[in-house]
């Protein structure tokens, strides 16, 4: 695949970062791959390559575009360990992946060894209906694939987001599925296993209650109520604007 990707770029006279995609069929000596497409940019999965090679692809893309040459030949690049990336979306996986919109009343990214989060939001951000509902990419690195998988699971379980529904529950189900653990994946995985996976997802009322509490804690009293004691606070005023 690497040789084919280079051949495509050379044939087109392409000089910059790009992503060539293939489809793989079969395993072992019987495996065959097919050209799918080339994107003349980095893909959303580029952190996986960065984590296993230690190369900042975004920086190198900018340098090449500025007329500089790559500081290393292909032979000097080595892959170390494994990396897994998941996309955290503002979607309701139990309701046909319905996109969500609203304020992030609570948003706390995990911070632990081997975990990287590339996010486009912060706590208090408004998730709009006008753009892709992806909140962040979470990437886990480990010496082995299993180590990377366990790190991603631990990070997702330490990633509280309140105010809107997310696909974190679905991601955990996928990462803990026997077929994913065994690496027995193909393009028909969700078609075959999706219904059973989604059936295990439930709408817990706890996040809704916590979201209200988070909103109440962050909303300040109006000036004309500032002189009142805490016993006299009207919750319908202090919680104005809260959404679940």
Structural write-up:
- The structure is a single chain.
- With 244 residues, the chain is α+β, with helices and mostly antiparallel strands.
- Helices cover 33% and strands 20% of the residues.
- The protein has helices at 2-12, 46-53, 57-65, 145-156, 168-175, 178-182, 189-199, 206-218, 235-238; strands spanning 19-25, 32-39, 82-89, 91-92, 98-99, 102-103, 106-107, 115-119, 126-127, 134-142, 161-162.
- The strands form 5 sheets. Strands 3-10-8 form a 3-stranded antiparallel β-sheet. Strands 1-2 form a two-stranded antiparallel sheet. A two-stranded antiparallel ribbon has the order 4-5.
- Strand 1 (19-25) and strand 2 (32-39) form a beta hairpin.
- The chain is globular, with a radius of gyration of 23 Å.
Short key terms for the protein model shown above:
244 residues; alpha+beta; three-stranded antiparallel sheet; 9 helices; 11 strands; 33% helix; disordered C terminus
